[in-house]
Task: inverse folding
């Protein structure tokens, strides 16, 4: 198994990230959503490799097989972890692909580190531009919703994750597109995440404003979102992001839920692979 040491430490020990690195060609880094792991990309990895790409998928700190420190779940630290991965693997001509919370890492990485090592970027069901409802972001999600998320995790994390997993894919509407076994597997992956990471990341993805970060995008950018997403509303996220990132391409998949990587796999894969080929 592959682990890399980041520049962050806890109790004088380097925080390590788990990653997979397959294929050859220009690298595509896949950044997973909350509260999953690199395993959510199972149905994208093989098609991307077959299309001629080197595919790197890693687990965010606190999730999957990566170390689970007590802190560091703010986006500046998470973007630093991504920068460490890029530097350790000596990567260039990279396409960053961020799903949901992972779109925040893509955005903050570009905001903090620029695009000199990047070729393209893709935001899929992403939390960017800004999830929180505020006076200048009226189509966002009320703060009370994120407080309810945190309370649910703290009270009965496994039950919360089961309900969230169904909403993640709009299971009632997509039983012909995703099996109950896959939904259960997603729950099993999420259940292995650090409880404190699961809670702290709610504040991170729910309240971090990426609008200034998006202004730093100066590379070809793909934005993909489902118009039936019940987790990340399309207006403050994809549509607002597309209005900020100059020259970006917005692809809206009809009737697709938040977890469209599982329910609308072929549509998403084609959109992503065609974008990479341009």
Result:
């Amino acid at each position: 198994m592959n682990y890399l040491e980041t520049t962050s430490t806890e109790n004088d020990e380097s925080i390590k990230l788990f990653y997979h690195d397959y294929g050859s060609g220009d690298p595509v880094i896949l950044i997973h959503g909350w509260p999953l792991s690199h395993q959510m990309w199972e149905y994208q990895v093989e098609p991307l490799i077959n299309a001629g790409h080197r595919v790197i998928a890693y687990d965010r700190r606190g999730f999957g097989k990566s170390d689970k420190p007590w802190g560091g779940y703010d986006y500046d630290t998470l973007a630093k972890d991504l920068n460490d991965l890029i530097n350790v693997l000596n990567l260039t001509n990279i396409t960053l692909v961020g799903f949901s919370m992972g779109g925040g890492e893509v955005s903050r990485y570009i905001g903090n580190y620029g695009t000199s090592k990047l070729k393209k970027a893709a935001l899929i069901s992403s939390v960017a531009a800004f999830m929180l409802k505020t006076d200048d972001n009226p189509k966002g999600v009320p703060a009370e919703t994120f407080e309810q998320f945190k309370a649910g995790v703290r009270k009965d994390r496994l039950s919360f994750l089961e309900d969230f997993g169904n909403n993640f894919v709009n299971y009632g509407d997509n039983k012909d597109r995703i099996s109950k076994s896959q939904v259960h597997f997603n729950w099993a992956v999420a259940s292995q995440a650090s409880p404190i990471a699961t809670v702290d990341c709610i504040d991170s993805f729910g309240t971090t404003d990426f609008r200034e970060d998006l202004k730093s995008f100066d590379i070809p950018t793909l934005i993909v979102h489902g118009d039936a997403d019940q987790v990340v509303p399309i207006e403050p996220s994809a549509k607002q992001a597309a209005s900020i990132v100059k020259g970006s391409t917005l692809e809206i998949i009809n009737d697709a839920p938040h977890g469209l990587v599982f329910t609308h796999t072929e549509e998403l894969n084609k959109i992503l692979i065609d974008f990479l080929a341009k």
User: Anything to note?
Assistant: The longest helix spans residues 143-168. The chain has a mean pLDDT of 98.
